[in-house]
């Protein structure tokens, strides 16, 4: 008689959750992977490749690769659109899930995209970021209320859309849990002087990631032209005592500088300026990378406070000149806010459900008892660091359930 | 294909080189997977660094573990053999023993060096290194009422590990009565957990930071002076410290370079043993069966070293399993009759998989199936599983005429990048030329020049070589080989009067569907334009 395989519950389908799930499955553990959104991959699946003529080690490609591995791994069962309502622990864990209605039948959908083509402007059908998402499309229930239901249901040539699908409940038993619920991106409207949400050409670094991923290049939201002058403002929401955010997000210098160079690589005529407090060392060969950055980009050690509107969607920044100390004004076509990582908005609830602690900043802290943490749920991290921690969480979980010692 | 699945027996003992915390933790984790471990330390003991008592605890556990044999004062003097069967000579003093291991974990440590030259300073009682200050603070030797100045970030770019030490010292300094502390710093490197809070806290306790681009001028004598132009006050500021603390660089173990040679892996220009390539993160090396924990691969913290130990154990388990290794179908195979032992394959193999014994031999347990050797072999003596030359030629032939009215474009796509990008383009409805025929290769390094010329001979209107970006190739140099070959082919095309732009060699990531579409559509457009 062989032992029944052990089972692990992984909460969160971002890069940390995907990695933990995959590593556990490689050790012959059955995995229930639960994701609250309709797509696997988390924030990082929307990130772009930042290579110039060579790879700059951002790790965005690793997310697609890991996602492909996870969806083809038979030991991993994925539940999308699911929220954990309750967790009971009596020896084993029993999680009660509320699962959102599956308006698109994953078995029937062949990702043809006709629903999206027809309804993308209404917001009723949304698309994921990776071809490895199946389905690649989801119905947004709120927006779907405003469209012709019969037309939406009928648009699918495979008959995969069922708007009468109901929410369901599901119970999962598991021997151990990995919590990988990720982070909440800093809400840039909390720094109102930048005009985010008011001016269309003020975007966040994460929006720029998705833009490059989808368009293959950087364009201004208003006219879809490559910007001649772009400014990156670093530390938006990080290292900010007034907000009480006394941490470095550990990723913004990396993505900011890498995308700044990507803009310059695609368009050598373009001008890019980076406004910063302290540039953080990123990657293994940072001195060489930074030297290149200094040749290609402008660096200003000053965080501008105010952004003023100018003609044709441009913006004027005021800042103190580093050499003279005098006020300087400069006009940009595109303003990128390098927003940071903040604790997941559900962290208090997650801590309560899984008996975890929170640190002074609100990130999650392990308390033992078979629940392990992976990725940005536990604090700011880049993609490779999230993957490393997820592997470690998996190895700790394997010890807890006795697969290893 | 599963019918002729080939199993080879491999050794399952594991050697862990390096008795620091990452090494001890890795030994414990690997032993926890059920393998016997030999842990070597070049010192006379293991894990001396102390951190909250956690290290002593780890060491005690390792010493008590029946599956771990600890060999102190011991170095791996030589490594022969192949993954799954490494023959290692371990030297303890003059005594040498040979042992066989299935896998090797390298967990060498870090060293430090003081950067006084960057400031033109001689070290002395009033000019001390970061390490010397730490010792003074630990022993309570810093007198009350002193002014202490730190110099950091001018002799090196710096990193959070360097800054953590400074911040920890500042925290300790603020507890010594009547101490004034000044920090002269370039960029403050805070990209690690808790550092920004420590930085802010020290500032609140009265520590003054001067952030400047210019290296501070230090004059030494009976009264020392440090002078800078304060970028905020816009005037020259002078500080008269009693003690100057000079930053230290934290560097890779100097033994790494020598260790890399017998392990058949490469040390990078900073002396770390892992290539800067996301495919190897977190703990893989270019060679199967050799794993890297902690500071052997990068500048990592104590906590990251422990994480690596867990990841190493997972990788060791995946490779060694129960000692029965299933050989993948796509390992390379040498035709004995054709091999002239020129050893081109040995030199170009990025995975240390090839050795020789009157002919080149490819170790089945080490081959990662990239096919670079097969394409570089001047005698076509090497074939690669599903990607043998005749199969590739047939794949091109199969596409002939499939294009109909559209130009026929043969796209050789690395399965890790170009092929995925094409699938993404199709899934997202980005335009892909109707006449494009994608041919999968395991790595762009497998795109033989013959395949490309053959495609043109068969009548292809255009050929694409789609590789990973340099530095992202899973087989390290496959993308480079492909780009070099493309240059050569372009010369040949020019010689026969064919437009060079019929051949496109481009690097893509798996998530660059949009760019795949643009590149392929552009090639189609230029073919059509030339034909009209």
From TrEMBL, chain A:
SUPFAM superfamilies in alphabetical order: FAD/NAD(P)-binding domain
Keywords: 4Fe-4S, Iron, Iron-sulfur, Metal-binding, Oxidoreductase
Record Pfam families: NAD_binding_8 (PF13450)
Gene3D superfamilies with a match to the protein in the record: FAD/NAD(P)-binding domain
Molecular-function GO terms, alphabetical: 4 iron, 4 sulfur cluster binding; metal ion binding; oxidoreductase activity
Highest rank taxon of the organism: Bacteria
The protein's name: Pyridine nucleotide-disulphide oxidoreductase
Organism, as annotated: Desulfatibacillum alkenivorans DSM 16219
UniProtKB/TrEMBL annotation, chain B:
This protein's UniProt keywords: 4Fe-4S, Iron, Iron-sulfur, Metal-binding, Oxidoreductase
GO molecular function annotations of the record: 4 iron, 4 sulfur cluster binding; metal ion binding; oxidoreductase activity
Gene3D superfamilies for this protein: 3.30.70.20, NAD(P)-binding Rossmann-like Domain
Domain 4Fe-4S ferredoxin-type: 330-357, 358-387
Transmembrane stretches, start-end: none
SUPFAM superfamilies linked to this entry: 4Fe-4S ferredoxins, FAD/NAD(P)-binding domain
UniProt key word Iron: yes
InterPro entries referenced in this protein's UniProt entry, alphabetically: 4Fe4S_Fe-S-bd (IPR017896), 4Fe4S_Fe_S_CS (IPR017900), FAD/NAD-bd_sf (IPR036188), FAD/NAD-binding_dom (IPR023753), Fe-S_Ferredoxin (IPR050572), MvhD/FlpD (IPR003813)
PANTHER family: ADENYLYLSULFATE REDUCTASE, BETA SUBUNIT (PTHR43687), FERREDOXIN III (PTHR43687:SF1)
Protein name: 4Fe-4S binding domain-containing protein
Organism this protein belongs to: Desulfatibacillum alkenivorans DSM 16219
């Amino acid at each position: 008689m062989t032992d029944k395989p052990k089972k692990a519950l992984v909460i969160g389908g971002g890069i940390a959750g995907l990695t933990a799930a995959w590593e556990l499955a490689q050790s012959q553990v059955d995995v229930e992977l639960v994701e609250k959104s309709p797509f696997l991959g988390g924030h990082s699946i929307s990130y772009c490749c930042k290579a110039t003529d060579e790879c700059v080690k951002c790790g965005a490609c690793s997310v697609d690769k890991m996602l492909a591995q996870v969806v083809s791994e038979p030991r991993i069962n994925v539940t999308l659109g699911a929220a954990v309502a309750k967790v009971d622990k009596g020896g084993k864990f029993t999680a009660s899930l509320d699962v959102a209605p599956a308006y698109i039948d994953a078995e029937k959908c062949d990702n043809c995209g006709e629903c999206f083509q027809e309804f993308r402007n209404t917001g009723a059908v949304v698309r994921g970021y990776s071809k490895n998402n199946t389905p690649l499309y989801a119905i947004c229930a709120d927006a779907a209320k405003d469209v012709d239901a019969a037309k939406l249901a009928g648009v699918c040539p495979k008959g995969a859309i069922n708007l009468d699908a109901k929410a369901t409940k599901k119970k999962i038993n598991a021997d151990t849990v990995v919590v990988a619920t990720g982070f909440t991106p800093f809400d840039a409207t909390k720094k109102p002087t930048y005009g985010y949400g008011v001016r269309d050409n003020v975007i966040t670094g994460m929006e720029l990631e998705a833009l490059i991923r989808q368009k293959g290049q950087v364009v201004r939201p208003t006219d879809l032209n490559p910007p001649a002058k772009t400014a990156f403002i670093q530390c938006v929401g990080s290292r900010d005592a007034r907000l009480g955010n006394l941490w470095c997000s550990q990723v913004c210098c990396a993505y900011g500088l890498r995308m700044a160079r990507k803009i310059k690589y695609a368009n050598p005529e373009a001008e890019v300026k980076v406004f910063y407090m302290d540039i953080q060392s990123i990657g293994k060969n940072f001195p060489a990378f930074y030297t290149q950055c200094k040749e290609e980009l402008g660096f200003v050690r000053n965080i501008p406070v105010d952004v003023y509107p100018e003609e044709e969607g441009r913006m004027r920044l005021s800042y103190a000149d580093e050499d003279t100390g005098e006020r300087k004004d400069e006009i940009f076509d595109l303003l990128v806010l390098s927003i940071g990582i903040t604790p997941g908005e559900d962290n208090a609830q997650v801590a309560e459900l899984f008996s975890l602690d929170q640190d002074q900043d609100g990130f999650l802290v392990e308390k033992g008892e078979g629940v392990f943490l992976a990725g940005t749920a536990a604090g700011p991290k880049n993609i490779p660091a999230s993957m490393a921690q997820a592997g470690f969480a998996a190895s700790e979980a394997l010890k807890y359930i006795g697969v290893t010692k | 294909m599963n019918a002729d699945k080939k199993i080879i027996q491999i050794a399952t003992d594991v050697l862990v080189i390096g008795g620091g915390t990452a090494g001890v933790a890795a030994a414990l984790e690997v032993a926890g997977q059920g393998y016997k471990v030999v842990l070597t330390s070049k010192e006379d003991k293991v894990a001396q660094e102390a951190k909250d008592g956690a290290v002593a605890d780890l060491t005690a556990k390792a010493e008590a573990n029946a599956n771990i044999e600890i060999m102190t004062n011991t170095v791996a003097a030589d490594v022969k053999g192949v993954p799954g069967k490494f023959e290692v000579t371990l030297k303890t003093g003059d005594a040498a023993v040979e042992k066989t291991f299935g896998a090797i974990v390298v967990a060498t440590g870090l060293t430090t060096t003081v950067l006084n030259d960057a400031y033109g300073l001689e070290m002395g009682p009033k000019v001390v290194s970061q390490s010397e200050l730490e010792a003074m603070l630990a022993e309570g030797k810093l007198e009350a009422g002193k002014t202490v100045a730190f110099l950091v970030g001018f002799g090196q770019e710096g990193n959070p590990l360097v800054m953590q030490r400074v911040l920890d010292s500042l925290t300790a300094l603020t507890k010594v009565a009547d101490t004034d502390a000044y920090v002269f710093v370039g960029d403050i490197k805070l990209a690690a957990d808790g550092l920004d809070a420590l930085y802010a806290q020290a500032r609140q306790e009265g520590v003054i930071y001067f952030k400047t681009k210019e290296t501070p001028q230090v004059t030494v004598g009976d009264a020392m002076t440090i002078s800078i132009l304060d970028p905020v006050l816009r005037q020259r500021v002078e500080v008269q410290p009693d003690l100057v603390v000079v930053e230290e660089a934290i560097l890779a173990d100097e033994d790494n370079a020598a260790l890399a040679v017998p392990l058949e892996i490469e040390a990078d220009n900073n002396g770390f043993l892992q290539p800067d390539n996301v495919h190897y993160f977190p703990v893989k090396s270019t060679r199967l069966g050799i794993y890297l924990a902690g500071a052997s691969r990068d500048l990592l913290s104590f906590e990251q070293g422990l994480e690596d130990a867990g990841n190493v154990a997972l990788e060791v388990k995946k490779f060694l399993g129960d000692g029965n290794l299933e050989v993948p179908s796509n390992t390379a195979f040498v035709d004995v009759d054709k091999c002239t032992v020129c050893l081109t394959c040995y030199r170009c193999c990025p995975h240390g998989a090839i050795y020789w014994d009157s002919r080149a031999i490819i170790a089945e347990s080490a081959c990662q199936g990239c096919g670079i050797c097969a394409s570089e072999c001047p005698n076509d003596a090497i074939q690669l599983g599903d990607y043998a030359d005749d199969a590739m030629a047939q794949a091109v032939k199969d596409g002939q005429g499939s294009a109909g009215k559209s130009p026929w474009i043969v796209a050789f796509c690395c399965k890790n990048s170009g092929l995925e990008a094409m699938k993404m383009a199709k899934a997202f409805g980005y335009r892909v030329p109707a006449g494009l025929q994608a041919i999968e290769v395991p790595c762009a390094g497998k795109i033989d020049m013959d395949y490309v010329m053959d495609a043109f001979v068969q009548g292809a209107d255009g050929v694409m070589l789609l590789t990973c970006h340099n530095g992202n190739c899973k087989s390290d140099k496959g993308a480079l080989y492909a780009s070099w070959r493309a240059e050569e082919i372009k010369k040949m095309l020019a010689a026969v009067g064919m437009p060079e732009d019929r051949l496109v060699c481009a690097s893509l990531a798996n998530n660059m569907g949009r760019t795949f579409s643009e590149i392929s559509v552009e090639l189609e457009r230029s073919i059509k334009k030339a034909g009209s």
